[in-house]
Amino acid sequence: MTDQRPSPAGDRLSDRTRTLDRSKIRVMFDLAEAYDGDPIRLQVGVPDFDTPEHVVDAAEAAARAGRTEYTANPGVPELRAAIAETMARESDVEYAPEQITVTSGAMEALSLAMLAVAGPGDEVVVPTPAWPNYVNQAQIAGATPVEVPLPADSGFDLDPERIAANVTDDTAAVILTNPSNPTGRVYDEDLVCEVARIAADHDAYLVADEVYGRLTYDRAFRGAASYVDAPENVLTVGSCSKTYAMTGWRLGWLAGPQPVVDAVSRIGESTTACASSVSQQAALAALTGPQEPVAEMKAAFERRRDAVVERVAEMPSVSCPRPEGAFYALLDVSVLPGDSLDVAERLLSEYGVVTAPGNGFGDAGEGYLRLSFANGLDRIETGLDRIEEMVRAETA
Ligand code: PLP
To answer: Which CATH number does 11-50+293-395 carry?
Structure first.
């Protein structure tokens, strides 16, 4: 006799799964995949460079030498030491190697940090427009994300007053993405200090996502933990992904106070156990080897940033704040009809250009499109020509 009970498969899902929003960036990705032709892809957050040769060589050698087993949860000691040295050299932040745990990308560092410090009843303050994963990560941890829209009229600069108005004793963490994805903004240190003070006054952590810290164009960058009043309240997140064109190697880290770092590596024991052993050796080569490839990539991003800013300034009816870091520009297209997902869909279907709709980064991003300049200059220029064509056609 066959069992007639309905199968729970498919609809017996946890509540936390139901609350997760589908990323609008992902929607565009799927539409681009289904697009008939070769669209200009200005939506991706992936450097269009190869991982430096010496890094690939080091990974190959490590795999051949049998460095293919699980490592200790927080990573191999030589990599943790190299991360500590790199952070001290490049962003002025002092952490002992024991205060660093290696993770599968910054993505895992952030989600485990959220699980370690936030839970039901807690709030996580996310200044927006922001990378959408923070909201999901807070929800997965059972906490409530609180979006704080930053002011568009100041190019989405950090606004301590607005943040203070949303930080309470329930706040477990305040997110600070510096340089920002999607605005490319690099925040003044005094504003970061104020936000850090607000968080510390409420016993909340400042989660400093500094994955784009090595990609700033107009001024040097220092990590928040090097200059705020209470560095013991800062959780610093870093990654090899953007700096070394290593997004697929999945190698990031979290640095911070010992109890949080230990908790993150304890939780990690039941998620990934450790970051890939081969990727850890690749990261070691990236951090300790020649840094010329980083300088070359950064110079290319800077040339493209300048080209985007110049080209957008020539266009009628649209504008973008000048990105100071990362490789994104946020284009104000609020003159065009529909919400930003409608605009992005039309731009793809009628002009063959893929962008990320601003409303995928929170309500504050409505009316904008994020353009990534992790793409060749000729593709970027063609993409911008087509955007101008659309703007002229729709505002005529
Ligand atoms: N943080 C920000 C602001 C990002 O834009 C990204 C990737 O796009 C990440 C973290 C994730 O980086 P990783 O590849 O190291 O997981």
So the answer is: 3.90.1150.10
Structure tokens at 325: 């870091």
Containing 103, the helix (H) or strand (E) segment is strand 100-103
Residue 238 is classified by DSSP as E
Token code pair at residue 315: 């266009």
| Residue 107 Cα to ligand 1 middle (Å) | 6
Phi and psi torsions of 9, nearest 5° = -55, 135
Neighbours of 72 (CB within 10 A): 13
| Sequence ranges of the domains in the chain | 11-50+293-395, 53-288
* Residue with CA closest to ligand 1 atom 7: 45
CA of 252 to the centre of ligand 1 (A): 9
pLDDT in tens, 354-380: 999 999 999 999 999 999 999 999 999
The CATH fold assigned to 53-288 is Aspartate Aminotransferase; domain 2 (3.40.640)
- The residue contributing the CA closest to ligand 1 atom 12 is 106
Q: CA-to-CA distance for 104 and 87, rounded, in angstroms?
A: 18
- Flag whether the pTM goes above 0.90: yes
Kindly report the CA angle at 300 between 294 and 303, in degrees rounded to 5?
Answer: 140
Q: What is the rounded radius of gyration, in angstroms, for the C-alpha atoms of the chain? A: 21
What is the DSSP secondary structure assignment for residue 360, as one 8-state letter? B
Helix (H, G, I), strand (E, B) or coil at 43: coil
Residues with CB under 6 A from ligand 1: 45, 105-107, 131, 177, 181, 209, 211, 239, 241, 247, 252
Other Cβ atoms within 10 Å of 304 Cβ, number: 23
Residue whose CA is at the smallest distance from ligand 1 atom 5: 181
Q: Give tens-digit pLDDT for 237-280.
A: 999 999 999 999 999 999 999 999 999 999 999 999 999 999 99
User: Ligand 1: which of 108, 241, 279 to mutate, judged by most atoms within 8 Å of the beta carbon?
Assistant: 241
In the sheet where 252-255 sits, what is the strand order?
Answer: 100-103, 252-255, 234-239, 205-209, 171-177, 123-128, 144-149
Alpha-carbon distance 150 to 159, whole Å? 6
